[in-house]
Design brief:
Blueprint: E1 2-7, H1 9-12, H2 21-29, E2 38-43, H3 49-64, E3 69-74, H4 77-81, H5 86-103, E4 106-109, H6 117-137, E5 140-142, H7 144-149, H8 152-160, H9 168-179, H10 182-188
Parallel strand pairs: 1-2, 1-3, 3-4, 4-5
Length: 194
């Protein structure tokens, strides 16, 4: 089983002194390697949905070969930070998720919240719209934005970070929450349900 995690700097794990981000923590905590699960963190700092849409297929296909695979997308932070128009982000997101679900079990996580109120308002609208898009496509989805926005431990970790990226404790919290989501947990344990 090969899992490719696509996203921006919050997938890559900027601000994480351990260099794992949430994908590395899930792989470690759920003992994926012992089950033959290979996890690729394909987050790229400052990549918007448009950037990710242009690169994800080639990167996924270069890794899958003849293996069973899963695709995880978590994007939107760079879109909000760079003020990408909502319609442009949604178009790229819909294209990606529609194409991905034809290739492999696909999972979408909304981006985590930010510290800047104006950027966070944009991000909230984008997260809600992307959740609806994923639902309409029949893609497994998780509202990470709302969950973390209510989470005091995560908000404190983001404040200790740079206001966009949390410190290592924030990535710990993100992974802990995601480990509780049954579809994603099953994927990291080599049993995709999607």
């Amino acid at each position: 089983m090969i899992i490719c995690c696509f996203g921006d700097s919050t997938t890559l794990g900027i601000g994480d002194g351990q260099g794992l981000g949430w994908p590395g923590r899930l792989a470690h905590d759920l003992d994926g390697a012992a089950r033959g699960v290979g996890v690729y963190n394909l987050g790229v700092r400052a990549d918007t949905s448009v950037n990710i849409s242009a690169r994800w297929q080639a990167e996924a296909q270069a890794r899958f070969k003849d293996n069973e695979c899963g695709l995880i997308f978590c994007f939107g932070t760079a879109d909000a930070a760079q003020s990408v128009p909502l319609g442009q982000s949604l178009k790229a997101g819909q294209t990606m998720l529609a194409q991905a679900r034809e290739l492999a079990p696909t999972f979408f996580l909304t981006p985590p919240p930010m510290g800047n109120a104006e950027k966070n308002a944009h991000l909230h609208k984008l997260a809600d719209a992307l959740l609806q898009t994923a639902q309409g496509l029949g893609v497994e989805r998780f509202d990470l934005y709302s969950t973390l926005n209510r989470d005091e431990a995560y908000r404190a970790a983001m404040q200790r970070g740079d206001g966009v990226h949390p410190d290592a404790a924030g990535y710990d919290r993100m992974a802990e929450i995601l480990e509780g989501w049954t579809p994603l947990r099953a994927l990291f344990q080599g049993n995709p349900q999607a």
